[in-house]
Amino acid sequence: MIVLSRLGTRATTSDLETTGRGVRARRIPWEQVSDLWADQPNRWAEVVEAHLVDGSTVPLAGVPPADLPRLQELRQRATPG
């Protein structure tokens, strides 16, 4: 049996949906995200991650570091304060 899955991340003003190596997608409401950052603070970063309020980290598949400011903007719009 062969299972094909698509790696990727979709972001909306309500949540992040990330699909990793498994079949299921994971939805993460913005309220659960404490921070977004790239593994290296420069243009050579390879992995963008969401740090959650429970202390866990979720890699955001398919998100280039150049898109990090757009993700941060979506998060700010979703979580007033």
Description:
The N terminus is likely disordered. The strands form 2 sheets. A 3-stranded antiparallel β-sheet has the order 1-2-3. It has a 3-stranded antiparallel β-sheet with strand order 4-5-6, with helices on one face. It has one domain: PH-domain like, CATH 2.30.29. Helix content is 14%, strand content 35%. The protein is built from 1 helix and 6 strands, in the order ββββββα. It has 81 residues and is mainly beta. Strand 2 and strand 3 form a beta hairpin. The protein starts with 7 loop residues before the first strand and ends with a helix. InterPro entries: CFP-6_PH. This is Low molecular weight protein antigen 6 PH domain-containing protein. Pfam families: bPH_6.
Tags for this model:
PH-domain like; 14% helix; three-stranded antiparallel β-sheet; 81 residues; mainly beta; disordered N terminus
Furnish the topology, listing elements before pairings.
Elements: E1 8-11, E2 15-19, E3 25-29, E4 33-38, E5 48-52, E6 57-59, H1 68-78
Antiparallel strand pairs: 1-2, 2-3, 4-5, 5-6
CATH class: Mainly Beta
Secondary structure tally: strands: 6
- Low confidence ranges: 1-5
Structural class: mainly beta
Percentage of residues in strands: 25-35%
Number of helices: 1
Cα shape: globular
Which sheet architecture does the biggest sheet show?
A: 3 strands, antiparallel
Radius of gyration: 13 Å
CATH topology value: PH-domain like
Mean pLDDT: 81
**What's the SSE pattern?**
EEEEEEH
Task: Output the strand order for the largest sheet.
Answer: 1-2-3
Whole-number total of structural domains:
1
Write the CATH architecture name. Roll
InterPro entries: CFP-6_PH
Organism: Serinicoccus hydrothermalis
Pfam families: bPH_6
Protein name: Low molecular weight protein antigen 6 PH domain-containing protein
